[in-house]
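Justification of computing resources. Each target in the renewal requires a structure prediction run like the one illustrated here; the chain below, 241 residues long, is used simply to show the kind of job we budget for.
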Amino acid sequence: MGFELENVLYETEDFLRRTLRSSASREARKRRAKRKFEEALRRVRRAALIFVGLMAALVAAAIALGGIGFFTWLVAIPTAIIFALISLSWPSRRQEAPAAPGMPKMLPLPELALRVEDGLIDRSKEFPGRALPATDAIVARLNELQPHLATLEPNSLPEGEARRLIGEHLPRLIDSYLELPPTLRRTGSESSERFTESLDIVARELDELLETCCRDKQIGFDTQQRFIETRYKDDPDLSGQ
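Resulting structure tokens:
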């Protein structure tokens, strides 16, 4: 009876955590929806430009040649439409090529963080409920890190640690957990508890990484704050004395 009650409590907690996701999770999903919408707009705009460009070239050719036959128009217009529609399936941004055959793509760190963030959002539905707060913290931190990761010196120790943590260690942790059979990933299992603890560690490491990335900015702020405090704190004109 006690074991069954414990399972019911675990399942109830799991349901509530999934239903009442944090604001960080909701904001992450909004950001991803916005990125997808913007990508769709870029593709539609590009397709429209391709169609207009092809039609303009066709009209220019007709003028230069003194006219084009009806059959040519009949073939050219559907061809331009088909080509524009096919272009909708092409990414609007250039993909980074692999450094060498068989080697993984060396994405810029901000883009790598963005892809890992999207992957976490997609796969979090397979995580135990107790792991969701740590997952949401990681997603929020990855988003916060993206504009700062580009400031890390290429091939430096912090850059290498960031790339390993975000692009290797975290994805491998998730892959290894989800490869377990469902019975070992059930709510309240030892594997699920250990997975949750590991995600908590990753979240703390990302906090430290953010501090490292923003160290110069923090020093700059501290310098300005001390200057203002030293310059104006005891100014009698400002204190009203």
